[in-house]
Amino acid sequence: MHPIRPREGGVNLRFGLLGPVELHRNGRPVPLGTPKQRALLTALLLEPNRVVSIDRLVTAVWDAEPPRFAVANVRTYVNRLRGTIGDGDRLTARQPGYVLAVRDGELDVTEFADALRQGRRSLSAGRPDAALRQLSTALTRWRGAPAEDVPRSAALGPRLDALTEQRCLALEALAEARLMLGEHADAVAELRETVAAHPTRERLWGALMLALYRTGDAAAALAAYGQARAFLAEELGVEPGPELAGLHRGILNRDPALRADPQAPAPAAVTAVIPAPGRLVGRERELKEVVAAIGAGPPRPVAVHGPAGVGKSALARHAVRTAAPGFPGGVHHVDLRALPRPGPYETLARLLGRLGLADDEIAADLDDALHQLRTATAARHALILLDNVTGEEQVRPLLSGCPDCRFVVTSRRMLAALDDVEHLPLAPLADDAAYDLLTRLCGRDRVDRAQAGRVARLCDNLPLALEIAGKRLAARREWTPEAFADMLAGEEHRLDLLTCGDLSVRAAIDLDYQALRRSGGTAGDGALALFHRLGERGLADCGPAAAAGLLGSDRRTASAALGRLADLRLMEPLAPGHYRMNGLTRLYAREIAPTT
Asked: Cis peptide before 277, with omega less than 30 degrees from 0?
């Protein structure tokens, strides 16, 4: 805890969760009362400046069946906590619960997260000296296990475990920064203590093995692998993963790639070619799934798919940046949308250029170019993001021709024809996440939950539309959220309003429509005609019988047309025989429908 001087004429508060729960008022510790009252404060601090419902507070305080008067007891604890805090406006009632106002510099969790984010960003940019300072600062915020004096209820336990996971990520990143700086002896001393506290973290064991090997103690590095293997077998019942096992083989074989070479580019520096992914809100579960799929088992492509504007690229970029430290061959990104003719050879040529080959060095033949990719990534595990793929043919040769690389693919439609792929669908944001994204963009003080919910519904809860709405509200301070929602409610102007600079919902949907126009055959022609008919009539819902009526066709032809629209994500199947366009796509269909 780092006490701060009181502000003149006010109350200075300092909250701590990274250890025993603490509150300092004007630099002095304040007793927090019973374990249940500390549990209540913990639940509020885990969601600072956000409304925490009474139901969630009840489940945080009572792990078993709550008592009959649990709600009344929560209100009593809240009143006591107000007195403890001593700043009357900090803890207020707001339907459906309470919100604890926490300012900048008052909560150790926020300071830790900010410093960790800065440190990971510095690592990705190849600046290990800055990363070491930032990560060390982040870890000084910890005083013990998170909220270690609070009983672990089913509601609080997972949230506190997530903080512990973040601490482990900081420790792993710190070790990586030391190795990049050549501080191998210092890293050994730190890592022996760290792996003793976290014996199932394979990346920490790998860092220790590498540090030992680079200090000239190959025997100790091999012994560390034996310890890691024993711990993993005893605690988890598993063998070491492919990265740790590969490092073990490299040490046995005295692989030159493992030597410390200050002149060589730092592995993490290659992540600078991944464009900054921006905000990622409400995707914690999906991010964990993608990162876990990247690191799981033998190399297997991970394909994220979903409709226009749902945030596939942002999620994939965050995931590969998170997974980057486990890939000594670097992280490489190819956006197929930027290629004039994005076939498999064009994709491969762009990727080889990312790996340092000049245009005149890239083989003119696809098979020869694939051989160049295998050679360039041999013995250096690489992670490759192929963004905005439109068809299996664009990427199939790469996925099958370079088995040592890990691939992440994003696409609108599910690339079902690819073999042995982990498919992960992405849906629009939940209401709470949509509210959070809007308030982060335009300010929590400007929009309440009801107003944000109305804007979010008019944006179909799509991250792209919400990002544009939030940025427009932030830029136009004279617009109230209520007035902006009223403007969005007018369907004739909604797509115009959801445009900000180079961000456009209309342009995103247009890519799918152009793909529909290019598709041929009976199903493609029928789908284009059906899309136009739905637009003319302003219809969102449709099934085979209705589609057959609109097309003047049999049900089989109509079903094929609906399936084609669903493949292109212009409609979504809700149930057998029931398809729906989201509101923004319906407006686009109405705009482009033929007038005659």
From this structure: no
